[in-house]
Each structure stands twice: as C-alpha cells, then as structure tokens.
Please model this.
Amino acid sequence: MKVCVYGLGHIGLPTALLFAQDHDVVGVDIDPDRVERIRRGDLPVSEPGIDELYAEVREDFAVTTEAEPADAHVLVTPTPLEAATDVPDLRAVRSAAESVADVLRRDDLVVLESTVPPGTGEGLVVPILESSGLDAGEFAYAHCPERAIPGRTLVEMIDNHRVVGAIDDASLDRALELYTFVEGEVHATDVASAEFVKLMENTHRDVNIALANEFARMAEELGVDVHDARELANEHPRVDVLRPGPGVGGHCITVDPQFLAQRVGSDRLISLARDVNESMVGHTIRSATDLLGDPPATLTVLGVAYKGDVADTRRTPALPFVRRAQNAGYDVRVHDPHVEEFEVDPEPLADAVDGSDCLAIVTDHSEYEELDPEALAERMARSRLLDTRAVVDDEAWLDAGFAVRVLGDGT
Ligand code: SAJ
Model:
C-alpha cells in the first residue's frame, strides 16, 4: 500500500519509518529544510534505534513537501496551544487535511494521529476531506492516536496497545491493514471515543503528578520525606503515587488536559491540577532563594530538558525557572548533557559550576546520579544544592559539606 505521512516531527517521522517496513511511504512536511535533512539521513529526531531503522527502510521511504495521491494518508501534524491565547492551534491539521482533500480518491484511507480536542475528527477534519466531493464512507476515516513516550518512542510504538476509532467497519479494516508494525493489541471504537481516550490518558497523568506535587509540599511542612513516604504508600496494592518535581513539561501532558477543559464545562479538577503543577516553579524558586540568600549570586541549573535522559526542551519547567531566577537578580548558568541549544547557552559542567554558589538539579538525567560532590565543592564559591527530583544521595552531599535541600523532603 502507498502511504503518505504528513508532519515529520517527533511522532510523524518514527511512524513513517515504521510504516516503511511494510509499505511504500512518502513523508510530507511543509518545511523544505527538514525534508532536505531527512533526505540526507541527518534526522531531526533523536530516538534510540531511529538511525538504524532509517538505514533499513530508506529504499521504501521518500520525502517531499507536497501531498501526493496515496492509498492511505496519515496526519501527524502538531497541535500546540497558541502562545498568545492558550487556545488549541489546529491550523496545521486543517492545512494537512486540505492538502489531502486535493488528492483524495474513492476508497482511500485517512487517519488522524495528532492529539486533538474532542469532536475535531468528525467536526473539522471529515468536513474538510468532504470538500473533495467524496462523502465520508466513500473514503475511509479513523483516529489512531499514538501512546509512545519520548526516549522509548520506537519500542512503545511497536509494543503498546493501540486504540483505533473508525467511522465504519471498512475504515477499521483499512486501518488494521495499515498498522502492521503494531505488536500490541488493537482496540476498536468510534472516533469521538478514541479522541477522548487519548486525552483521558494524559489528563490522568497530569492530575496524578499534581497530587504527588501537593504531597511534596505537604511533606515539607509536616517534616516528612515525601520520597520515603511515597515508597511506603506504593506498597499498597492499589496505590501508585507518582514522583513530585519542579513542574510538568513536554508537549503532551501540559497541553492535552486543556483540550478537554476548554471543550466541556465540568473541568474543575483538571484545571486545578494544571494550576498545582504550574505553581511548582514558583515553589522551587522560593527554595532556591532560601538556599542562596539575596543576589548577587550565581545559580547553576543542571538539566533543562523537560524530563530525564531526553534532549527535548518543549514546555520545560526549566525555562520559567531560569527566567524567574534571572528576574530575581541571580546570574544563571546552565548545563545539560543532552541539550545543545537553549534560551541560555548550555555550558560544559566544569564551566557551569566554577565559582557558582548553588546547583539546582531541575531535570533527572541519569548523569546527575553520578556527580561527585567533593570535586564539585572544590570548584564552587559556596556549596549548596537544590535537588528538585531527588536524584542524588543527599547523605554523600552533606558529607561533602553541601547545604542540601531536596524538593518534598521536610526532614
Ligand atoms: N513527571 C513528573 N512526575 C512523574 C512523571 C512525570 O513530574 O512521576 C513529569 C516529567 O518530568 C515531565 C512531564 O511530567 O516534565 C511529562 O513526562 P511523562 O514522562 O509523564 O510524559 P511525556 O509527556 O513524555 O509522554 C506522555 C505519555 N503519556 C502517559 O504516560 C499517559 C506518553 O505515553 C504519550 O504518548 C505522550 O505523553 C503523548 O505523546 O501524548
């Protein structure tokens, strides 16, 4: 089957390459530079195994900037919140659907993978496709949201169970013929339910992280260590408290709950959870200020990716943390073993630490578990550590002469 995949980003590119194992795939992206990079094999997405997969399938994988006739069209364009309004920005989905409508033929399949507000498939995308002159049913349509976690994208795309919401049985059959790379179970439902399920999943995680963050702040007041308490609570067979941190980042968990909250009236808990998670940056800055005292002082931020062991900085809590620290008058330096470009240029560890007054671990990269507190203390003007992710062994750092504060540890 010939497949066109629209949007060659963090999800679209790996998905297109996986399709190319069994199908003849054309990746379509409006950005000519991105298309050129991919054509050269300089992939703009870094995920374990992706370069090897590209090498394996490149004979069956072409890239271009224009829609082409195909048996299946898969839309994986981004659906961010517009910065100025916080309203879901569906322009990329609309324009990809318009491009597909121009080349759509009877019996072609169209799949929307992008996460969208409920009702977008049948309310927005299908009507655009019908501007081709074909009615839904004359073409097949399904929503098939991905569930892969960055850092494990390929493995999870293959292994995770998948939900397919189709407009009719023929569309479901066509989608099953397309997703041959999925080894997990495929569960069939209608389009609106598939849209809702995807949003439920990420909202569930956001609300549960908010609960973990609230527990962390309570523990600080109660003189308890939330990390020990969490381990004990999680011994209960039906309890799974998540990890607290400096806030929730990434393009999914911070955004998807708002797709739900803006669409329906009964969103109190979801919106409150967002507020709790967003308030963690302020809480973390107050902890840093307590440790550092008044400026002038130098604060070294360790980790700016939105989570550990990835290079992705989308909606990272590290950015508001850095900006607020700068606004408070601190000189802020940044180190990240995975990130090359950031609003404040990342420096090698030694440069970022030399003469600094305080380290703040904002991202739980594995590398930070191995830091040597004694060596770092020798380089720093004052030995202070704020660990917002409970990454380090705080006893070793105390022994090395550090004043240590761990988010959620009130002991
Ligand atoms: N975080 C915490 N505490 C935790 C877990 C995460 O503070 O216990 C933070 C992380 O540090 C990060 C943010 O939450 O800043 C989000 O990270 P994540 O690992 O929870 O999720 P994402 O955004 O990388 O990927 C999520 C996943 N969704 C769920 O687990 C329900 C993934 O499966 C989805 O495919 C992805 O969103 C998506 O594309 O929608």
